Amino acid sequence: MSVSSAGPEAAAVAFPRGMLLAQVWAQLGDSVAALSNSSGRPLARTVKLILDPLVLRPVRNPQFAGTSVRAEHAEDFRRAITDAAEVLAATAAWFLELKRARRHAKITEGNPQDLYFQRCYELAHIHGTPRAAIAAEAVREIHTGTTVSELRGYVTDPAHSGELGRLLRLAWAGKRDVPAVSGSQRRVADFLTTCATAPEPDLFESLVSARVGSGAAAELEQPGVAAGYGLTDHARIVPPELGEKASKKTLPKPLDRSILERLFSGFHLQSKSDVASLVRHEIHRSAQPWQLAEEHSRITMVLGRDASADLDGTVAATDAQARLRSRWQREAYVHRVLRMPSGVPEALRDDVRSVHGAYLRRLWVRLHGRELRDEELAAHELWDVLDGVLRSVIMDQRDRLRSALGARQ
To answer: How many Å apart are CA 270 and CA 151, to the nearest integer?
Structure first.
């Protein structure tokens, strides 16, 4: 199917996003081979780490955000990528140069695509074509932070584990609930009513100053509440262990993760070299409301909790809830999963039915990652975060559905 032009009569036509992307990418040719798979399509990580966040930017260009692109936006979609052709070619060249520097330095830790793709895009913008000396320096900079093996070794070393265990017990023994703030629910709703179109910084900061997020966290201590939010498998939250091993494929729910698993899951997001400080900060964070260290993060959990509630309902309490509900309910795959009699794993059906929990888990992980990067949220960023989390959940579940359907064939 050609996507070169579309007349007024084709205004309702929509092209599958993947097909459109493959067609445009093919025009870039061998210059982006290092960012492509064996079929000549962009790698999944190329889409996730470069094209979506840096080129197409669907948060700012919602016409590019869905599974399909309407005909009237197809040329804009094509142009966004072709206009970036030169920098994408340079990004691919930088990636090859950084991999050469990595081999020369005998580095084997971490996935090169995860570690280097976005840095290569940055280098392409700044320097154009690759330079070996700059590539070597970039690799050294990326790998000067604490390594995963150092982190694991520190937490499990008997010389440290006894003291760390005592710090963990003391942190949890000192936990105190923050009283709920009178009228806070109305003020949360007021912010959610305007945050997508005209966020109010003063209102947001007043919620932070009043510790509304911390006060709302008291409900997590009630039996079944945190489990109902999908944040734990326990009826009541239990203190984390220090941990001995971690795997991204088998991570527990956020509030069930060990200290090692919490740091491991977001490890590529930070570059602190002081492993002792890193672990102690995480122990302290684990005993705070919502198990997050910053009040900006905690109130964002409350905003996300309310905005993503009852996405299958019909009546929305706020504009943010209405927008998230609209995004969720227009997803064709959701309805397809629920009406298919067989062939779809029950776990995937459960994910669709309990999207609120999937949303809050993803939101917690995102906020925890921002804290590891020392990034504080501002009022104008809130809607992008809340909407982006649901989009991420949708894309993840859509991919799982495609895999399940592919296994049937």
So the answer is: 13
| Those residues with Cβ within 8 angstroms of residue 350's Cβ, 6 or more apart along the chain or in another chain | none
Mean pLDDT of 94-108: 92
**CA distances, 307 to each of 196, 218, 228, 303, 398 (Å):** 11, 19, 16, 6, 21
Does 360 have pLDDT greater than 90?
yes
Query: Which residues sit opposite 70 in a β-bridge?
Result: 14
State the DSSP H helix or E strand holding residue 69, giving kind and residue range, or none if neither.
Answer: strand 68-70
Nearest to 102 by CA among 139, 137, 129, 147: 139
CA distances from 129 to 89, 92, 97, 340 (A): 9, 10, 10, 51
Q: Could you tell me which residue, 230 or 174, shows the higher pLDDT?
A: 230
- Quote the DSSP letter at residue 36: B
* pLDDT at residue 405, rounded to an integer: 65
Instruction: Give the model's confidence band at 266: pLDDT under 50 very low, under 70 low, under 90 confident, else very high.
Output: low
Q: Say how far residue 24 (Cα) sits from the centre of its chain.
A: 26
**CA separation for the pair 344, 336 (Å, rounded):** 10
d(CA 5, CA 7): 7
* Residues whose CB falls within 8 Å of the CB of residue 137, separated by 6 or more in sequence, listed in order: none
For 332, counting Cβ atoms within 10 Å of its Cβ (0-12 exposed, 13-18 middle, 19+ buried), the class is exposed
Q: Where are the domains of the chain?
A: 1-144, 175-239+287-408
Q: How many CA atoms lie within 13 A of 83 on its CB side?
A: 9
**Nearest CA to 181 among 220, 209, 143?**
209
Which of 408, 389, 401 has its CA nearest to residue 335?
Answer: 401
pLDDT at 10: 43
Q: Output the pLDDT for position 11.
A: 45
In our burial notation (b when 16+ CB lie closer than 10 A, e otherwise), range 218-233 reads eebeeeebbbbbbbbe
Q: Say how far apart CA 196 and CA 62 lie, in whole Å.
A: 13
Q: How confident is the model at residue 183 (pLDDT cuts 50, 70, 90)?
A: confident
Phi, psi of 144 (to 5 degrees): -80, -15
Residue with tokens 């990595």: 102
Model confidence pTM above 0.90 = no
Give the pLDDT band (50/70/90) at residue 400. Answer: confident
The rounded distance, in Å, linking the Cα atoms of 284 and 277 is: 11
